[in-house]
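new request in #modeling-help
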Amino acid sequence: MRVTLRIKRFNPEKDEKPWWGEYEVDVEPNDQLLDALHKVKWYQDGTLTLRRSCAHGICGSDAMVVNGRNRLACKVLMKDLGKKVTVEPIRGLPVIKDLVVDMEPFFAKYRAIKPYLINNDPPPEGRERLQSPADRERFDDTTKCILCACCTTSCPSFWANGDYVGPAAIVQAHRFIFDSRDQATAERLDIMNDMMGVWRCRTVFNCVECCPREINITKAIGDVKKAILEGGVR
Amino acid sequence: MALKTRTRSYGSPNRFEVASWYFMRVSGAALLVLAVFHLFYMHVIAGVDAITFEWIVNERWNGPLGMFWRTYDLALLLFALLHGANGARWVIDDYIHGRGANLAVKSALYVLTAILILMGMQVIFTVPLHSQQTALSALVTALGR
Ligand code: SF4
Ligand code: SF4
Ligand code: FES
């Protein structure tokens, strides 16, 4: 089938402002949007710039706004998009070129939540730190995050105030706060309890709607808020 | 090409914000009951035609349930204004980023809220109780019902 891709283009070295490029491509219904973008880049306009790596929804590098919603180009199929497809860079981060944005502000927030296990006791001799299946289950959902930034860049609260730590960083913090092996719960809750931490979330649910891993982000944020209110994890 | 990005550090815990978040939940739930019943009472039970200043003073605030209504109205006043003002504070923080402008608009909001609360409380507290009914006896009557 033949579809029209409307892609928001911007080259800061040449363009004064973004413009829409239109490209007609023939695709199979089961092609990914990423395949269609490749067809444009490989056969029509080699200057089209985008980021992707795994092409299988795992690396999280090809988040973009597709028909107004944040999606991974490699996870959405052409048959679900209609004959006219608009593609824009994700919002709220500086555009470097075309569909590539500067992810550094996003990753700075990720680093701010100390995304690593903190446990100062030595592990039991010769083996790993054990955890019951029930304890593992508490943060199972938030281990699935691939840091694609779909959620944070769909969040109106983040658009309004770029200092907001954002749903992705909260999801990552949740993954350690509710890990029974982690000892830095209090410190992590202090980070989340910042003016620009969880309190900027208004429970708009944009993040939940677009997470390609189907993480229940708002529930994770609610868990963190509750833990702060109760002064720790119960 | 190096894009300039600002990195803010996180981790100044904020007791006030915890309390404010909790207050928004509690007052939200309370307002759901208070405001809906208020509308229902005024429009359906009392009837719009009945609502005059005399009716408020004589029936609502000096009737057998006078003390109940004054407490009810005080709770409605405080919850509605504080809930609304706190929400507006967040909107201001979202959209007004300049320090000076942010402070100015927030100060105006706080002053306005304080004035409205004081005006409301002045009415609720200073409309006299009818001579035969002291605050205490009204409360006893109200509780006895
Ligand atoms: S639920 Fe919170 S984090 Fe998610 S989009 Fe809404 S405001 Fe943003
Ligand atoms: S929570 Fe979901 S949408 Fe957000 S960064 Fe992780 S995988 Fe992407
Ligand atoms: S290319 Fe890796 S997630 Fe889409």
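bot summary: Residues A 145-151, 167-168, 171, 211-213, 215, 217 surround iron/sulfur cluster (ligand 2) (CB under 6 Å).
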